[in-house]
Amino acid sequence: MGNAMNQPENSALIVGAGTMGIGIAAIFIAKGWHVTLIESDKSRHAGLHLKIQQALEEMAALDLPQSLPVAIHADMAQASWTNIRLVIETVYETLALKQAVFKQIEKYAPADIPLTSNSSSIPISEIGRGLPIIERMLGLHFFMPAQLVPAVEVVCSAYSRPDIAAEVMRIMKAVGKRPILVKKDVPGFLANRIQHALMREAIALVEEGFASAEDVDAAVRYGFGFRYIAAGPLKQKDLAGIDIHNLAAETMYPHLKANTKPSPYMQQLVREGKIGVKSEALQGFYEWTPERAVEEEKRYYEALRQALEIIEREDEP
């Protein structure tokens, strides 16, 4: 499936057209970019335009062309690289696969353009190990659903060129994202490290019988998490008083979980196939019905859209 139109000056190439790749494609299309999608599974090609259109509708994107500016190919060799300004890899989270993808990217990518990976945990220095393009490689970690969550992490390794990182930050701002510069590519980067620290304690509280999954979620959503749309945890403590947090930490920190492996409870759920709404059992931390799962997903996306409106209003003059 080739281009429906000539490529404009700004064009992004995305390798992998799964859920994240589709959401990322929508972000760029909404801001007038052309997108080239590389998807090796040709059986998926026919449905990609519809999925991108759905992502754009979730964004409430306006003033879009009648024909989406998207080219879809099964192989990088088939793509036009003329106006590519940014490459984003979004394939399955396996180091060997990602390394193989970047070896292919090395063959075709124009000199000096940023080459990025949407890996959620693998350090970019590991993906680029031994490649001459490593100085142009960065992590570019979007959060699901990519088309709605404003943040994106721009992750540097010790080899990353500062000018390449600055260019990716500029591009992300230009397409309406909130880029976060992560100066060292430790596993999990920034947001996932914070998130997993919270999840470790949240799961432990359920596993050890302190509270139900419903009450743990309520404590976060309607308690301290409610404040995070207004201020991050460090600014919030500045507003409330670091001294108070310090006193509380002296009492609590000795009792917080510090396990270095996933909890036995979570591992058991995975072994039993109870991995949430996508499992045959329709179980995870909660029990689901097909109807409730669909209803909850709609509510979740609508809540994200409303939260995004709050963030966007802060940017209005």
Description:
- The chain has 317 residues and is an alpha/beta fold.
- The protein folds into three domains: 11-182, 3-Layer(aba) Sandwich (Rossmann fold); 195-260, N-(1-d-carboxylethyl)-l-norvaline Dehydrogenase, domain 2; 263-299, no CATH class.
- Helix content is 42%, strand content 12%.
- The chain contains eleven helices and eight strands.
- The chain has helices spanning 19-30, 48-58, 95-108, 124-127, 162-174, 191-207, 213-221, 233-240, 242-252, 264-271, 290-315, and strands at 11-15, 34-38, 70-73, 84-89, 115-117, 137-142, 151-155, 178-182.
- The chain has an eight-stranded mixed beta sheet with strand order 3-2-1-4-5-6-7-8, sandwiched between helices.
- The longest helix is centred in the C-terminal third of the chain and has 26 residues, at 290-315.
- The protein is globular.
- Mean pLDDT is 93; it is low at 1-5.
